[in-house]
What we know:
globular, alpha/beta
Amino acid sequence: MESIAEDSSPERTSRSFADLHCHSTASFDSLNSIGRLVHTARRYGLTHLAITDHERIDGALRARDLAGRDDDERQLTVIVGEEVRSTDGDLIGLFLERAVPPGLSGVETAAEIHAQGGLVGLPHPFDRFRGSSGTMAQAAALAELVRTVDFIEAHNARAIGNANVRAAELAHQEQLPVVASSDAHSPMEIGVAYTVLHGPFTNAAELRALLPGSELVTGRASYYVRLLTPFAKVANALRGNRRITPSSAPTSSAA
């Protein structure tokens, strides 16, 4: 990926460069260590990185602490997020204080995120190679669900086929803001897609205000690296890190 860090123009300093969907090794299927995520995001010039592990936020909390105490002049804001598997498919929560349990309906999951003051995103809703998204694409509740989300992921760097086209069409139809995300599960994916926002932000309200004017940087597709996912699952299983189910969901932020 070509770094955006070399752009030191005044225009750059008034913008935010955000990857709002990526995974650390706290996820059962990711190879990204916390340190590598923070280092690589900084090196590529991202200003904001949302770590959205599956059904947990402890990895994001560690990354936020690491980024906050680092002296690196390339400032990086880590957003505590989560990718939650609802009964209607996956949802993204940003600016969370505690983990949202899986297994609720889509509307209930969105309500849990909003109750924390967070933002709700709809990731890869039409990617047929993800079981949760396949459910969402067919769900009768989709029309109701899109009325509860704050943005749609119109470009997911791992998406297959016409999934991104359909997501963008849905966002246009519903007049919802769009983002581009890497959905990184390995170091080579970090920042391959990101969203440019015309202003700084530090909280959910500020990001919500900037989203309607977002610009998407899609770069190269990285769906081929899905081949690494089975190896990540094996590696994480060996160290006892498996997907969280509704019965084993953490009850606090210390997942």
